[in-house]
Specification:
Oligomer: homodimer
Shape of chain A: elongated
Structural class of chain A: alpha+beta
CATH class of the largest domain in chain A: Alpha Beta
CATH architecture of the largest domain in chain A: 2-Layer Sandwich
Helix content of chain A: 40-55%
CATH superfamily of the largest domain in chain A: Bira Bifunctional Protein, Domain 2
Radius of gyration of chain A: 27 Å
Largest sheet of chain A: 8 strands, mixed
CATH topology of the largest domain in chain A: BirA Bifunctional Protein, domain 2
Strand content of chain A: 15-25%
Chain lengths: ~450, ~450
């Protein structure tokens, strides 16, 4: 039989151990933060009725969706985001949920996008929302969680992160005052392109919609955020569009931000509008200051009718989504790939006279002390076992012995002796805490 | 616009917070054990070329696969297990992997199975394998990891778990001695039904294949395990089929099992054959002693040509797979659903005079001490906030105050006072460690 070429589909990827370890570590940090806020996880099927997922129909999305007829003749599709399944979920399980409902959902989604734009057709989203509360407290909790989670993920502190905040109401009032309120969806979509295409291009597109004078006023307004300071920008926006519920909400949020001492992470930016007409309140995007070019790594906003397609009950909410793949790529760029996680704290050498049973029993004593410990499976010269550990980025090789354990420090190329497991474990744990140099990648160069 | 009915496809499920929390906790325990052995994670695409996944073609599997033509006209399919993608993965990335390669993969797979048999069309597999080592040390490591992982998951200790072990070579030699070696695939498939259909039914099926006398001998042979004691069963098997590499391998493994003191978890059972012709060495299934009826929760074996479809290089290996959904259902049955995990350690009450900013800043002080802390978002009477905590299974409500914190113990219906966060955190952590009663489920009854 001829061999089949082992290959994946265009736009799809394998994750080798170094990448997958890093992803799992990122997800563990994200989940840890979400859980510390009392958010709870849910999951939904990858495959759903196409009608349920595409209810609204039309648009760019529909063309990208993986849609087909299953064995039972049903019209089905792979989910293309986590928002639509969540809307369906809340409508279906409404009677089982307490409001406000604080949930997160970390899962893969699929879109047959044009891969030439450097996009993947399978990617991971991390969504978190508070549904059933319209207050500033809920808005703030999402913003605060974004700030905490991204800070922990990037390990850089709040100065390296900027969350750009705006309110849809403010912008809508400006358009109304210009008599352009009926064109808001179209205008929002153009302004959302600002980061990608630049101001001149957006000006042209806006002029086509509103005429030259109004386009100028809109661009002047959304440029008011360039000044930086939140209070001053807010004053200017009030001067331009007048006061309203939206400016009062922004004022309140700014107070809460100051109460938590997180001012350095936030900016008021009237150019942030988000393309989707789904949002009705605050909207936001977040950027890594050292990598502005990669765009927003976490975005979201407030909406007033989550599940309108499936239920008459109006459910408001506020939420955000982290693009894990983009963030991982950004952190790789920021730190280089040398920081790959070590995949075990120690390896137990395989030596004559110590069979796999005895060796595993010894390894268990280390594992029970929180030290991950690979057992080498084949008898080789010590130097070969040290080389294997080095290639895999394992910092220690333990050579078993009766009455004494020899600990080879791979990086330092030195042997240490320990009278028992307790002492050996203390040595390994101590060095682990001191360890600042990056581990060698697990895969071959 | 008429509403769309919010529903999922037959055989697919939503996971509500209590179930999803439990699943995530199970996966964390499984991963923690795998990582402690130095196993590393990989991931592969959900969607692959149909030819890559279905290379061998034919059979029961092919009918169940979700297969379709994508937007680019490619013949694609959703993965139906993690073994085939792993085989493709090792062939594709062979030059990047060190052997022996110890990997795990926890991910969803899809099969359009008949749901009347209580099966799901979307389910999670946890596979772990050692590839590139043919020794007993590798066999034993997989067995030992199974024993550890299932013991930790079930929290029941090794006495409640039985791993039934056999060797394909032994059975093949018996068939050869009966002159039925050429019918082995067919015979194995029938014997694999033993647990489901019973001995009488299997006897009939075997008689159709081999005739009455041989069927009797085969059944006599596979019944030799009924005696229990590993050594005695092994002696009887040797008497019936003679000694060979297979009996020596089983002897060696039994020694390693004794070296680690895990004898109580293992049995030698010649009726375990596994249906797949893929296996060539040891094979095994594992059972919860208190729930024998649910069948094996973790099975696997040794194979000698993992990636033969994609590569000329013969890669041997040994591995196992945990069926997470079946195991979760089993644990629910064993423990009841009352043991649902608490979804936060404490809630901070929302009271007049303490805005969301100050409250979140206070909550952070608890979170930084390892206490997950939900912030309630709306001002309500204390009794209403206590009720909300009770419904969600949150054991403590913290009422902020200047100079003193009041801690409401929900279960005991008592207030405690603490002078500062330090003292309050100590109280909550202390009670958490004492906590043995199950939490109220998060969802409404």
């Amino acid at each position: 039989m001829p061999l089949i070429e082992p290959r994946v589909l265009k736009g799809f990827r394998d994750f080798l151990p170094p990448q997958e370890l890093e992803r799992r570590n990122m997800i563990a940090k994200i989940e840890g933060t979400f859980r510390s806020f009392g958010f709870v996880p849910i999951d939904t099927p990858a495959l759903e009725y196409a009608q349920v997922l595409l209810g609204k129909g039309g648009g760019e999305t529909e063309k990208q969706v993986y849609r087909f007829t299953d064995q039972g003749g049903r019209d089905v599709a792979l989910r293309f985001d986590l928002t639509v399944p969540f809307a369906r979920f809340t409508a279906e399980h409404r009677s089982e949920l307490f409001l406000p409902f604080k949930r997160y959902h970390i899962a893969k989604v699929w879109r047959g996008e044009n891969t030439q734009r450097g996009r993947y057709r399978e990617f991971t989203q991390c969504d978190f929302d508070i549904v059933g509360s319209d207050g500033a407290a809920a808005d703030f909790e999402i913003l605060f969680m974004m700030q905490k989670t991204l800070g922990i993920l990037c390990g850089t502190g709040e100065k390296d992160l900027t969350i750009r905040l705006n309110h849809r109401g403010l912008f809508n009032r400006l358009l109304d005052s210009l008599g352009a309120g009926n064109k808001s969806v179209e205008i929002l979509r153009q302004i959302d392109k600002l980061g990608k295409t630049g101001k001149d291009e957006v000006r042209k597109l806006l002029e086509d919609i509103t005429g030259r004078e109004q386009a100028g006023k809109i661009l002047d307004f959304i440029s008011l955020g360039d000044e930086g300071d939140f209070d001053r920008v807010l004053e200017k926006l009030k001067a331009a569009a007048g006061e309203g519920e939206d400016t009062r909400r922004l004022e309140t949020l700014w107070k809460y931000i100051k109460d938590t001492g997180t001012e350095e992470s936030f900016m008021l930016d009237p150019s942030i509008t988000r393309g989707l007409d789904y949002y009705t309140g605050i909207v936001y995007e977040s950027f890594l200051n050292k990598l502005p070019g990669i765009g927003s790594v976490c975005s979201g906003g407030r909406y007033d009718n989550l599940a309108g397609l499936y239920s008459k009950e109006k459910l408001c909410g506020v939420g955000a989504s982290i693009g894990l793949d983009r963030l991982q790529a950004a952190l790789d760029e920021l730190w280089g790939t040398g920081r790959r996680p070590t995949y075990a704290d120690a390896a137990l050498a395989c030596i004559e006279g110590w069979g796999p049973g005895k060796t595993q029993a010894l390894a268990e004593q280390f594992r029970n002390r929180g030290i991950s410990c690979e057992v080498f499976l084949e008898i080789r010269k010590p130097v070969q076992q040290f080389m294997a550990a080095e290639k895999k980025g394992i910092p220690w090789v333990i050579i078993p012995g009766d009455g004494v354990l020899t600990l080879r420090n791979i990086e330092g190329r030195k042997n240490n002796e320990a009278p028992d497991v307790e002492a050996a474990a203390a040595l390994i744990m101590g060095a682990k805490q001191d360890r600042t140099t990056p581990a060698t990648p697990y895969t071959k160069a």
